[in-house]
Design brief:
Blueprint (H helix, E strand, L loop, with lengths): L7 H7 L1 H4 L5 H12 L5 H7 L11 E5 L4 E8 L7 E2 L2 H11 L4 H10 L3 H9 L2 H6 L3 E8 L2 E2 L1 H9 L3 E4 L1 H7 L9 E8 L5 E6 L3 E9 H4 L23 H11 L7 H4 L3 E10 L5 E11 L1 H9 L9 E9 L4 H11 L8 H19 L3 E4 L10 E4 H11 L18 H5 L6 H17 L6 H4 L2 H16 L2 H8 L10 H27 L5 H4 L3 H20 L6 H11 L1
Parallel strand pairs: 2-4, 3-5, 4-6, 10-12, 13-14
Antiparallel strand pairs: 1-2, 7-11, 8-9, 9-12, 10-11
Length: 563
């Protein structure tokens, strides 16, 4: 990203989907920052934002459980590209942070604030409880202006405040559309000059040694992911692996022991050469095929890396390029993934992708790797498919924002079922598109654009269809319905008035709840989601019993006759 990409008009384009939620421009810019730079998923980012007046100078709050920190955010969006940020706004922000430097002060704000959104956010984030438990506070100031010398001096004297100005944001932005692979050379330091060299005939040479973590985070291609072109699993977000690495980073006394409990990094390269003194290995045209999560996590926390932090490195100089795929798959297969090992994961995903290619070539494609290109009219990612299956098949919409779980603990339940094929994924995707088309009916704009809302409504449809004779048959085997001409349109016609009725009832319940309605908490609570769905389904059943609304089965048959 270039710094000029953060000029006012460009920021409005970057943050357009967040402005569409009804957020003020500065809050929309912060929402974009939380997702693209701070690396929160869209639900956590939404949940962190505080809208409205009387916000005590705080625009967002996020609790970092690993670092035991409560992070407070403030954003400032400037329209003048030449304007710089001094220390005035930063001093004001420091004053705002001072309001939360004790549990007592936070409790007073919670009790007295006029901003209902701030009150919900403080309560949801358990700020008072966390402060009482010893959590520290940290401030992050976000702006599209460039810092001046006064801002630099202020930040230097206030280590609890981090400043993300246009320069730092541009440097930290990850462009996942950048070309794959790193062309160029890099010299890795070899700890104590100790290296194991293995010649695999004429095919490859392996170099194994210990290298400083500071070298790894200096590799090109980390921020735009070009370093991980052949990694089967690109770096995921807040995974258990990443959390474990970050926890290890907290204890600098254990950094020298890091190689003992981490598997290390595997790189492939076109050429490798050892220096005359044996203290460096220079690699050319390289890629990380195992250890993407480790490298990216270290990169994000590079300020915590000490000189004693080192990792095992395995560099493979390939003389036979076709070995790359085999090395990538097998080296990753040796690392446990809770639900399925990587090879099994890869086979399941490849099976589904092949099914799409066989049945829906050029129309629908199934994307199993981020950045993968497609020429099909519609491309459905495995992340999106997994979340839809979790909501509709497994009826757990409250977990659909935790995408990393889809490929860890929940992988087998979501994907490892014989009924999960191209038809089933396309069916639930079509249902989700019907739901999305009805979201503008939701009067609460923020609720309508909240990620979990569509999964909640998909869950309601799942329960509704299972309680319907015809719907239950389609639920069990969508392939029976899909061969019919125009089955997608027929499904939309059948569901349109039903979904409209459900959303009208939802609007009524939200309005009746008033300020006490906190959708950010409710849609992540299994009990409250079930209760809310119960109410909506009862209302639907009453409408059907009074002949004010036809049930799904009747409407499906009528829609078929009308075609």
């Amino acid at each position: 990203m270039k710094q000029e990409d953060l000029d006012y008009k460009n920021v409005l384009a970057l943050a357009s989907k967040h402005i569409a939620k009804g957020r003020p421009e500065s809050a929309a810019f912060l929402n974009w920052f939380l997702e693209e730079i701070y690396n929160l998923d869209d639900v956590d980012a939404d949940d962190s934002i505080c809208d409205g007046n009387y916000d005590q100078g705080i625009d967002a709050i996020y609790v970092n459980e690993i670092d035991q920190e409560i992070v407070f955010f403030q954003s400032k969006l400037t329209q003048n590209p030449g304007k710089t940020l001094g220390d005035v706004a930063l001093k004001e922000f420091a004053g705002s942070l001072g309001q939360f430097d004790s549990a007592e002060k936070a409790a007073a704000i919670l009790a007295n604030t006029k901003n209902t959104e701030l009150k919900k956010l403080l309560d949801r984030s358990k700020v008072v409880e966390n402060l009482s438990a010893g959590y520290k506070t940290k401030g992050i100031f976000v702006t599209n202006a460039l810092r001046d010398e006064n801002a630099v001096a202020f930040i230097g004297n206030h280590p609890s405040i981090a400043l993300y100005d246009r320069q730092r944001i541009a440097e930290d932005f990850i462009d996942i559309t950048a070309p794959e692979g790193v062309a160029g050379s890099f010299a890795l330091s070899v700890f104590d000059g100790l290296m194991l060299i293995y010649e695999a005939g004429a095919d490859a040479t392996m170099y194994q040694f210990i290298a400083p973590a500071s070298d790894l985070v200096a590799l090109s291609g980390i921020s735009d992911h070009t370093l991980f072109a052949q990694n089967v699993r690109l770096p995921l977000g807040n995974t258990s692996v990443n959390r474990g690495i970050r926890q290890s980073l907290q204890d600098k006394d254990s950094h020298a022991q890091f190689p003992l409990f981490h598997n290390g990094i595997t790189l492939l390269c076109a050429n490798a050469s050892i220096s005359d003194d044996g203290e460096t290995l220079t690699i050319t045209n390289y890629v990380v095929v195992n250890g993407a999560q480790t490298v990216t996590t270290l990169y994000k926390d590079r300020d915590k890396i000490s000189i004693n932090l080192r990792l095992p490195i395995r560099v493979i100089e390939l003389k036979k390029p076709e070995l790359a795929k085999t090395i990538t798959q097998i080296s990753n297969n040796q690392n446990s993934i809770k639900s399925r090992d990587l090879k099994e994961n890869h086979q399941i995903q490849s099976r589904i992708k092949s099914d799409f290619e066989k049945r829906y070539k050029d129309e629908f494609d199934y994307i199993i790797k981020r950045g993968e290109s497609s020429t099909a009219k519609v491309a459905i990612s495995n992340e999106e498919a997994g979340a839809l299956l979790l909501a509709f098949d497994l009826q757990r919409p409250w977990s659909c924002h935790q995408l990393y779980r889809l490929f860890e603990d929940d992988y087998g339940d979501v994907f490892g079922r014989p009924e999960v094929n191209a038809d089933r994924i396309l069916f639930v995707w079509t249902l989700s598109q019907i739901v999305v088309s009805k979201l503008p009916m939701i009067k609460n704009l923020a609720l309508g654009r909240y990620r979990l809302t569509r999964f909640f409504l998909l869950y309601v449809l799942s329960r509704l269809m299972q309680s319907d004779g015809v719907g239950a048959e389609i639920f069990q085997n969508p392939s029976k319905a899909m061969p019919a001409a125009g089955w997608g349109d027929r499904l939309g016609v059948a569901l349109d008035p039903i979904l409209s009725s459900i959303i009208i009832d939802l609007n009524y319940e939200v309005e009746r709840a008033g300020d006490s309605f906190d959708y950010k908490s409710e849609l992540k609570s299994p009990n409250r989601v079930r209760d809310r769905a119960d109410e909506l389904l009862k209302s639907y059943e009453k409408e059907v019993a009074k002949d004010k609304l036809s049930d799904f089965g009747t409407r499906w048959l009528q829609a078929g006759e009308a075609q």
